[in-house]
Amino acid sequence: MFMKFKGLLIFGILAFAGSLPAQTVNNPGFETDTGGTPLAPGLTRYTTGQSVGGAWTVGGSDVLNIASTYTEASSGVGGGTLVFNPNSGGFALDITGAGNTGANTITQSINFSSAGTFFLNFFLGRLVTNDSRYLGAPSVSVFIDNSLIATVNYAGAGGTSNLVVWEAEAVSLGTITAGFHDLMIRNNSLDTNYVGLDDFGIVPEPGTVLGGVLASLLLVGFWRKRQQSPSSCSAVHA
């Protein structure tokens, strides 16, 4: 009997974990590059009100979607070629826009299929170079429904590789109710012409799933204690 119950319980635990799926972020890596104005091969500009790939609405002034094939000549010591490599795939977004046009934003309405506590995961990119146009460290702020959730500052050091170095970021969004909520990312950096964004995802915080699993395990312990208690056993008569 216990083994049968145990099997059903394990199935229930797995079902509970599976009931808190990752929430869908459309065009999470900016691979769909439609709706903007091409400035050069591999470089597309999106201005206020335009949508990057039909998913992210631009605010402020403008942003750039940059393909892995796009390069620039470095004006730093030693020259060389600046390579705007994405974290993955073929594109990444530069939220500073053409040059650096200030506090630009991208916003997407996310449909949270269930209530819970969630993490926002994404990659923040810094062009590591001695070119004076790109020396500053990236910084962005995360908002839900226009409320500030966190400010994320790139923690890595600079260098001279002329490549983008990507840093994984995780931001707790706290408790979110079911339904549509606006996720907005805002540029805070004014001293660099590149703040890279790539590979967004929203997942349940580990504690949400863990709490359900622990509750299930407590239920197991309670059930076993009752099974072992004399008062819960049936008498057998000859």
Question: Which secondary structure elements does this structure contain, and how are they paired or packed?
Answer:
Elements: H1 2-18, E1 37-40, E2 43-47, E3 51-52, E4 56-59, E5 62-67, E6 71-73, E7 81-83, E8 91-94, E9 105-112, E10 116-128, E11 139-144, E12 147-153, E13 163-176, E14 179-187, E15 196-204, H2 206-228
Antiparallel strand pairs: 1-2, 2-5, 3-4, 4-9, 5-8, 6-7, 8-15, 9-14, 10-13, 10-15, 11-12, 11-14
How many β-strand runs?
A: 15
Q: How much is the radius of gyration in Å?
A: 24 Å
Spatial order of the strands in the main sheet? 1-2-5-8-15-10-13
| First-to-last CA distance | 23 Å
Low-confidence stretches: 2-19, 209-224, 229-238
* Individual helix count: 2
Average predicted local confidence, pLDDT? 84
Q: Give the CA-based shape.
A: globular
Order of helices and strands: HEEEEEEEEEEEEEEEH
Structural class: alpha+beta
Largest sheet: 7 strands, antiparallel
What's the helical proportion of residues?
Answer: 10-25%
Strand content: 35-45%
